[in-house]
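Appendix C: a fully annotated inverse folding record. The material below is reproduced so that readers can follow the format used throughout the book. The structure is listed first as tokens, followed by the designed sequence.
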């Protein structure tokens, strides 16, 4: 993971498709923004998708990692403890206004005339002022810890359009259907059908953000009926896939 620019308080990383950072933590909270591409962020047993209209917030001392979906330009801005009190006390993904986006890009862009520390502090205040009251992204995917559920998640992630039942998937990994159903409820707090729907919507977010159309995305994620896909997506994300796609900033 090459760092091609780093200075006090900011970093820029160029990630290749499917590149994943090691699990790590920082002594200072930080904001993560994809200037190009799509990121996923995993922390506290959950995974969020971060397109270019969202910013991830990771407070200090939380273990986390990132994964790139497509070649991704990841920008990081560290936040002082005094400013961090305006942000959630847990990892979150926040809706990002145009003003917050421009301030994040200004803080992390190559600058032939570097800004003064006072100017950079003012930009950080703008970012936090914009993100502090912003709504949190409602969709996060629980990350299973049990190795049997991890294998199930791997299979479904590789083929989100797959039609196999829980029983058929269980036979493929050598685990009974009732055992898998119990593990889903106990560890993930939801049944298998809801978990698979959330996983498919996560995959849909990546496809829509990287330019796929709504109909193409529906079929790629296992919905033969686009209306059912739109209903499922809207219930979890809070807006239709078409509106979500239109609201993405230009690349």
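Designed amino acids, in order:
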């Amino acid at each position: 993971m090459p760092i091609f620019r780093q200075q006090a308080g900011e970093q820029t990383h160029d990630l290749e498709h499917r590149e994943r950072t090691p699990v790590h933590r920082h002594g200072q909270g930080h904001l993560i923004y994809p200037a190009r591409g799509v990121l996923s962020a995993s922390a506290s047993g959950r995974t969020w998708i971060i397109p270019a209209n969202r910013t991830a917030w990771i407070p200090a001392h939380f273990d986390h990692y990132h994964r790139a979906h497509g070649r991704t330009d990841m920008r990081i801005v560290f936040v002082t403890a005094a400013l961090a009190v305006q942000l959630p006390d847990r990892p979150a993904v926040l809706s990002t206004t145009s003003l917050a986006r421009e301030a994040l890009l200004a803080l992390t862009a190559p600058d032939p005339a570097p800004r003064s520390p006072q100017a950079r502090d003012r930009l950080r205040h703008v970012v936090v002022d914009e993100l502090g009251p912003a709504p949190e992204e409602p969709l996060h995917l629980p990350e299973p810890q049990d190795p049997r559920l991890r294998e199930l998640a791997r299979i479904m992630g590789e083929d989100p359009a797959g039609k196999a039942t829980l029983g058929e998937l269980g036979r493929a990994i050598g685990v009974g259907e009732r055992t898998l159903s119990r593990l889903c409820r106990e560890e993930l707090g939801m049944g298998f059908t809801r978990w698979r729907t959330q996983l498919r919507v996560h995959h849909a977010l990546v496809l829509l953000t990287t330019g796929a159309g709504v109909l193409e995305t529906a079929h790629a994620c296992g919905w033969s009926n686009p209306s059912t896909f739109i209903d499922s997506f809207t219930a979890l994300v809070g807006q239709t896939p078409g509106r979500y796609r239109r609201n993405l900033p230009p690349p």
